[in-house]
Amino acid sequence: MTADPFAPHTAATTSGTAASAFGLTKVHGTGDARVTALDDVSITFRQGEFTAVMGPSGCGKSTLLHCAAGLDTPTSGSVRIGTTELGTLDDRELTRLRRDRIGFVFQAFNLLPTLTALENITLPSAIAGRRPDREWLDRVVSMVGLSGRLGHRPAQLSGGQQQRVAVARALASRPAIVFADEPTGNLDSRSGAEVLGFLRDSVRDLGQTVVMVTHDPAAAGYADRVVFLCDGRLVDEMTRPTPDRVLDRMKAFDTRSRTS
Ligand SMILES: Nc1ncnc2c1ncn2[C@@H]1O[C@H](COP(=O)(O)OP(=O)(O)OP(=O)(O)O)[C@@H](O)[C@H]1O
Ligand SMILES: [Mg+2]
Fold first, then answer.
1. 216 C-alpha to center of ligand 2: Å?
2. Residue 172 within any structural domain of the chain
3. Gap between the Cα atoms of 245 and 181, Å rounded
4. 23 falls within a domain
5. In total, how many domains does the chain have?
6. Ligand nearest the Cα atom of residue 56
């Protein structure tokens, strides 16, 4: 059975839920510069599921990820990671939750240039004053194929390898959920396919939960479901997507928006 992504929080939808948003609205700016980036979005991300978020430029995809990851504060509505309501946390608690329970992969790799690959991967736990879980770290590092490159600095790695380091860093704390905002946007198609494969493997083999923004139907084809945003609203959802079906759906949106 497919749970309704538009369903509000209930006891039933909370079990097996990695993260959820209810009535999420985000307004940027004031007066003439006022933009409603998210308009009453409710969505559930189930544990162990890979979700792709698609929609035209400016429709609110990054805003949704940033609000869901506690990197941005919604104007109204609520976000839960597991059963923790982000709005109830103070700044310190929110920082800790982001560090321990959320992984984020950006389009730009955002690695620290003076640190080695391994130091970049373990930096969040080092900041937290914790030893990384060695066994988990070994699994993540070998999954993304970095075992021979852990001593390299980012400048000594290709773009695809740098993004693999970023994926490993996001997974290192064994987070409740990984958010990735166009993680293949700066990669050639082969490196992009590798990174998508690792994200999918982290879901299939490691039981992680991944939410990824993409403009690419081929990338969306790696996901278990695709949700479509338009003008800050969730407008559609597809399960077991294939690139062709995603492309057809995108064309249908284009036709509809041209004729409306
Ligand atoms: N800090 C901000 N201040 C003002 N407006 C903003 C801000 N951030 C985003 N917006 C606006 O909110 C809307 C949604 O932006 P968002 O970045 O979420 O879109 P997106 O779907 O990620 O687009 P893209 O595919 O181009 O990355 C846009 O109209 C954008 O201009
Ligand atoms: Mg964006």
1. 13
2. yes
3. 22
4. yes
5. 1
6. 1
Evaluate whether residue 1 is within a structural domain. no
Domain range for residue 214?
A: 17-259
Distance (Å, whole) CA 29 – CA 194: 38
The ranges of the chain with pLDDT < 50 are: 1-14
pLDDT at residue number 258: 60
d(CA 201, CA 114): 29
Q: What is the pLDDT of residue 257?
A: 61
Tell me what pLDDT residue 88 has: 96
Pocket of ligand 1 (CB under 6 A): 28-29, 35, 37, 55, 57-63
The residues near 33 (Cβ < 8 Å, ≥ 6 apart) are none
Per-residue model confidence (pLDDT) at position 9: 39
Domain presence at residue 79: yes
The pTM (predicted TM-score) of the whole model is 0.91
Query: 34 with 27: CB under 8 angstroms?
Result: yes
Q: Which CATH number is 78's domain given?
A: 3.40.50.300
